[in-house]
Amino acid sequence: MVTAEGPTFVELARQALSSVEHGYDLLAPKFDRTPFRTPDAILDAVARQVQAMGVFDSGLDLCCGTGAGMGVLRQACRERITGVDVSAGMLAVGRRAVPETADGPHVAWVRADARALPFGPVFDLAVSFGAFGHFLPWEWPGLFAQVHAVLRPGGCFVFPIAAPARPGSSSYLAVLAFDAAMRVRNLLWRPPFVMYYRSFRLAPVRDELTRAGFTVHLRDLPELGRRPDGSPCFRLVVAACD
């Protein structure tokens, strides 16, 4: 995480002691050189699945950050794509990283809270990558209702979700330690920085999506690996807006 090109330990500490919005403003110039950016392998796997679903007119990247997911939308949408994020710093980096091209969809960037989206039902596809840890479980109903409200009938909300790490594994212990450190930090310091990796689990997420009015389907992403029991390490959640 602390590399020659990435953020220094001091910069990471300053970000961790800030609010979510200001923390990402601080991290934005070096965010793409941290492990927090969604890996290209995940983006490519999702892009292949989305393209197989057909061609969409308009797409929304929810909590777009520096725009990694905008590349997925650019391949799938023919008219316009929009990235929305609460961090002005992340959006500024995204504008430079994902410029509009003459032969591609119109690209827009909007600063807004995902829990209060400033759109009507104008999108056919919504995607999101790596952002759900910023929302506590009690916020999911409102968040998913917002996404449902900005999708046209027949639109889809698509995102990858990882299988839980095996208890006792190095990944499990690392995530457990991170979430525990974050809880202690938020007990001792204000403003809070909400980011919990273990809370976003498939079964309760699927239930909340269904309650929000979506019909939920799952697609395996086998190219991202399999667990010892043969199940995929990642699945794609496809929530259809009827």
UniProtKB/TrEMBL annotation:
PANTHER family from the UniProt entry: METHYLTRANSFERASE (PTHR43591)
Biological source species: Streptomyces humicola
Domain of life of the native organism: Bacteria
A GO biological process held by the record: methylation
GO molecular function per UniProt: methyltransferase activity
Pfam families, per the entry: Methyltransf_25
Classification via InterPro entries: Methyltransf_25, SAM-dependent_MTases_sf
Keyword annotations: Methyltransferase, Transferase
Residues in coiled coil: none
Record protein name field: Class I SAM-dependent methyltransferase
Domain Methyltransferase: from-to ranges: 60-155
Organism placement in taxonomy: Bacteria, Bacillati, Actinomycetota, Actinomycetes, Kitasatosporales
